[in-house]
Amino acid sequence: MENKTVNIKINGNDYSIDSCATILEACRQAGISIPTLCYMENICDEGSCGICVVEVAKSHTLQRACITQVYDGMEIQTNTSRVRQARKTILELILANHPQDCLNCAASEICELRKISYDLGIDETPFEPTKELDLPLDTSSPSIVRDLNKCILCRRCVKECELVQSVNVIEIAGRGINSKVSCFMDKGLGETYCTNCGQCIKVCPVGALTEKNDVDRVWDYLSDPKKHVVIQTAPAVRVALGEEFGMPIGSLVTGKMAAGIRRLGFDGVFDTNFAADLTILEEGTEFIGRLTKVLSGEHAHLPLITSCSPGWIKFIEHFFPKCLPNVSSCKSPQQMFGTVTKTYYAKQKNLDPRDVICVSVMPCTAKKYECLRPEMDDAFDHWKDQLMLKDEDHFQDVDVAITTRELGRMMKEVGIDFEHLPEESFDSPLGESTGAAVIFGATGGVMEAALRTVYEVVTGKPLPKVELEVVRGMKGIRTADIPMVSVDGKEITAKVAIASGLGNARVLLEEVSNGNSPYHFIEIMACPGGCLNGGGQPINNDPSVCEKRAAAIYSQDEALTIRKSHENPEIKKIYEDYFEKPNSHLAHELLHTSYVERDLYELEKEEN
Amino acid sequence: MKFYRMHVLVAEDTRSIMAGAKRVEEALKEEIRIAGLEDEIRVVPTGSLGFSDKDQVAIAIYPDNIIYCPVLVSTVPEIVKEHFLKGRIVKALAHPMEQKEVTMEERTSENQMNLDIQKRILLQNVGKIDPENIQEYIAADGYVALEKALFDMSPEKVIEEVKTSELRGRGGAGFPTGLKWQFTRPNPGPVKYVICNADEGEPGTFKDREIMEGDPHKMIEGMILATYAVGGTHGYIYIRGEYALSIQRLQKAIDDCYEYGLLGKNILGTEFCFELCIHSGAGAYICGEETALINSIEGKRGEPRKKPPYPPSQGLWQKPTLVNNVETFANIPAIISNGGEWYQSIGVEGSRGTKLFSLMGDINWKGTIEIPFGTPVGDIIDNVGHGVRYDRQLKGVILGGSSGSLLVPEELTTPVDFHALAHIEAGPGSGSIVVMDETRCIVDICLNIAEFFRHESCGKCTPCREGTAQICHLLEMIASGNGLPEDIDHLEKISQTMMDASFCPLGQTAPSVLRQALKKYRQEFLDHVHGNNCPAEVCNMNFTEED
């Protein structure tokens, strides 16, 4: 396709622009910015808000810059009084039906409506509300809270859920002034096949979508003298937490993060990465087991698919339940960590597990759902007989999961000057981890970490290069062939695939479901780019966010001396002292889980 | 073949049926049978005879050229005995055929105008044939145009003829029809759609209903001709769900066409194939907008799409699609039969042919009329509508429906045509003339229109979704006596923004009447706001001792 250019005029000046460009893109190329609100590149071009209108000669109405293509000879005016008046009036109309709640609103710092109103010089709206603004909050989901009164109907969330995640659980219902974002049968989000990935929160320009706020629960635990409160931090948190304090995107703040958390009053400042290494040992062993079976002609479910992303797990439970046997039985690092805390760690420290509280900080909103899953109480089951526990003693392995954003708020609440904290380290015994663990935060990281161990176990030799670049990158679906020669001389080529974003996961699962998936091992992350772009991360729609945070993660990996999970001394110790070996009976009891086949439209909810 | 000495045509359009037309039909048949005349006199249902505004049943007698209205079941025996049997016209109930638009009261009036400025081409069969009988349509020269096109003309020649006619779309936008067909033809198949927009949602407009109930084959023949011309393969008639009788008659017509080889495979034995079916709307004005209509057929929310791409290149299911209004299609058979130049000779420059108008409001005669372009608005009101009723003063005229324009009496000398009306910021629109007398309150009328648009806005874009609700709210305040001076400024500001920045013509034209009202009838608004007074005494804010 030839790259034609056209000659246009913008505000009286001549420009030569690519003929496929929209007015918005043309103005960007010309260094002229046009305010937008609902528009989001590659996600939402509904043309709903009308803020980006410009005057085009020979068109008697104003034209939306975001969706109008340029043509040769087009004459554009971006700042006439007619244009400015239209933008202002549109904002005044939106503000008339928007709760004046900025002081209390969790989104006030990132709110695009507040920012654009300020930039356009709007003091207050002259219009009265035409809606009641009394829709009840949707708090049915443990991960996501919806306040439809704040919704400006920009449709970004609908488009993200439809086009990027292919979940399609939200849509506009109703007409005109009564239209609203809704789920099937107007159910609450928690009663649907929503996967809790939280990507909708990331694209919402206002506070209509936020994460469930569990900060107060953490404060309550911290101020309870009877409780021994430990915290685990996911790998992706340490490359994003700084952004909540104004630091550049992708600042690596591991040491400050540990220091800040310690100052919040936790009894144990630990690292989820420890459990990530544990996951690699368990999952790598599981993979080698299935691969060996298949290579020797027996049946096993391949491809093996990773299981650390709870948004992905709920997705496959709803949409491809028949493929569940392909999913690794390993719990996620968060959950393994919780179980280990209340068994191995509690034993070591001579603590009653009922008094041990495990808090996790995650880049993820789905982790709030994951820690509540009924089957995630293996520690309780483990102790039940020995301690003669009753039902009212019941506890989950992980008590509460908070997001990176919530952790940032907690630190701000107590006045922690994050940027100037000293570098501190995690506590022992659950704080030691490897480069393999930290790369879990990026798409491809779990695969690379697993292969660093699997390769060595199968071939008896380490990878030629510890950085397995072939599985890295931000492309939504990536594949690779990993040639290996086993210790007994067999040539095996492991075919692997990596997908991030549920729309891409769906593509790979269609193949698995149809029985023609060519892969042995698949890594899936629900969020595009991996956990570093999770639903709980600082909200920043700068297009370089994923690359910068990934760069920080890989640089942390490089800086660590131990880069393979099986070389982590604390991991060696936990197997020696406790689990004996990967996939042992005790490991299966505490570190592995099962899944649930779910309908898409469960009209009668059963309590299990 | 049976010959009857007399035909009794019973008007059976929607309103006449509601007034009891079918019972009258049954009564006529029964009385005729009792009188032993069933082999001499035939009773036939037909379209509207032009009396339905009175909610009365009308029947037309041929060859006597008499219309009886009102006809009650109880007056049928007298008509049958006196007229059919004895040949004596029942004067008290009769109207001469040529003056059928005249009411009972006007019939003997001295001031009765005889000038019939209508030119009934589109409506030529309405009230004359049985709309459910394809043979009657064929006997009235139906499908002759199709035959001519399929056997004597190439598709390109058909398009040329329509271009020569200078026919413009009759749905409201007025886009040159031949040009639209020309854009659609080259886009390749194998599937190409032709859609008839029969949503007729514009308040005050019921002219498409007249055709669909009274002469459905004319519209279908036009569609088949269009499909032949653009290379279409499949068609839909998207019809508003509320038009039950039209749907029924169209379906009968389609079924008959399939039986007669006029639809389906190998039409009239040629290579040309066209599958046509009806798709019912579900109560949304926005689905009269062609891309929202297309989305509706696809099962999506009825919301407009961005244009370009335009339907001729990417429409239904992203295939090339032609969308035209009912009336536009109904014009085609005559254009093909008589030639584009013939059509061009009717009307004025830039506005050729005739236009259907729904005439209603505070007027003596209401109904659907067909006038050549170039007729002044005032002439239509006086000659066909017989003036403002009850001898009241004319206050204003809304032309083109709720999204049209508001004309003051001084502007009524303007001829109805695209150019002339554009000079006064108006247009024929879909074809609706609503006459308002001095007892109407402009504020109340604007509020009524605003409530309509608030209800019908699809909600996709902010200016329209929020703007229609705000306009409604502000007019409610003004009408209730609680209006503030700034409300009028706000109405103007919001109207301007909606016109400038709405995504589709619904939002762009919703404030049109209001904006003109604020200009041309500003004092009335000011009276409401400053004086807390409704001069027409419509809005409930004037309390007197007696209330």
What is the count of helical runs of chain B? 22
Spatial strand order of the main sheet of chain A: 2-1-5-3-4
Q: Largest interface, per-chain counts?
A: A-B, 34 and 34 residues
The major sheet of chain A is characterized as:
5 strands, mixed
Content-based structural category of chain A:
alpha/beta
Mean pLDDT of chain A: 95
Low-confidence stretches of chain A: none
Gap between N and C termini of chain B = 70 Å
Contiguous runs where pLDDT drops below 50 for at least 5 residues of chain B: 99-115
Name the helicity range of chain B. 40-55%
Percent helix range of chain A: 25-40%
Please outline the major beta sheet of chain B: 5 strands, mixed
Quaternary class:
heterodimer
Measure the end-to-end span of chain A: 57 Å
Descriptive overview:
The complex is a heterodimer of chains A (608) and B (547). In chain A, 33% of the residues lie in helices and 13% in strands. In chain A, the strands form 5 sheets. Chain A has a 5-stranded mixed sheet, sandwiched between helices. A 4-stranded parallel sheet of chain A has the order 11-10-13-14, sandwiched between helices. In chain A, strands 12-17-16-15 form a 4-stranded mixed sheet. Chain A has 19 helices and 17 strands. In chain A, helix 8 packs across helix 10, helix 8 packs across helix 15 and helix 10 runs parallel beside helix 12. The longest helix of chain A has 24 residues. With 608 residues, chain A is α/β, with parallel strands linked by helices. In chain A, helix 16 links the parallel strand 16 and strand 17. By secondary structure, chain B is of the alpha/beta class. In chain B, a hairpin with a 3-residue loop joins strand 3 and strand 4. In chain B, 40% of the residues lie in helices and 14% in strands. Chain B is built from 22 helices and 16 strands. In chain B, the strands form 4 sheets. In chain B, strands 2-1-3-4-5 form a 5-stranded mixed sheet, with helices on one face. In chain B, strands 13-12-16-14-15 form a 5-stranded mixed sheet, sandwiched between helices. A 4-stranded parallel sheet of chain B has the order 8-7-6-9, with helices on both faces. The longest helix of chain B is centred in the last third of the chain and has 18 residues. Chains A and B meet through helix 2 of A and helix 17, helix 18 and helix 19 of B.
